[in-house]
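Re: adenosine-5'-triphosphate structure - here you go.
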Amino acid sequence: KKLIIGITGGIGSGKTAATNIFQQLGIDVVDADIVARDIVKVGSPVLDLIVKQFGKGIILADGSLNRAMLRQQIFSDNAQKLALNAIMHPAIRAELLAQLDAATSDYVLLSAPLLFENGLEKYVDKVIVVDVDESVQMRRASDRDGVEPSQIEAIINSQLSRHERKNKADFIIDNSGSLLMLNEQVKAAHIWAKNLII
Ligand code: ATP
């Protein structure tokens, strides 16, 4: 059976920066954020289900999903939020499992910011947490997204706490240093992961 390792971390912790390095080392990465985006692309069955639930008004002129409107609608209506989750979660899960199954590298990474929050933990054998303190998260994510640090802070507060996340980790990558230091830590994690196989 193939070894599946989850990789998680709060907003701006450096999951993408880390998984890019794993990919350079030849490791397949399944990204829950990318899957969540791709399954609602124009013409997809999941997008049809969303239109049935929210109406044609949720589609933009080019046929794509109006994410801003959808976000607004579920923000103010918990029943609609549950309905959306009931459409999205099984579809995301099925696609994640299909991609994990198709992976051919020595082990495969499942990258998900909300690995624990969304119950994806049960699909992985081990968990790597990419860790930085909240001030670094706020600085890097607000620089990247061009938004106020307070907006990032609100998202941090909606996610699992740093302490809880680290408690669930089998391996912690400390990304408080430079990208060069991240590279070294990913290499160490890669060696750790390969040793789990044999
Ligand atoms: P999200 O959950 O929001 O998608 P993420 O965990 O994938 O975030 P990244 O996008 O990888 O985080 O990193 C956040 C930002 O910080 C990016 O702009 C990235 O280039 C930068 N960054 C990541 N690691 C470092 C580092 N060690 N030094 C400097 N900048 C970094």
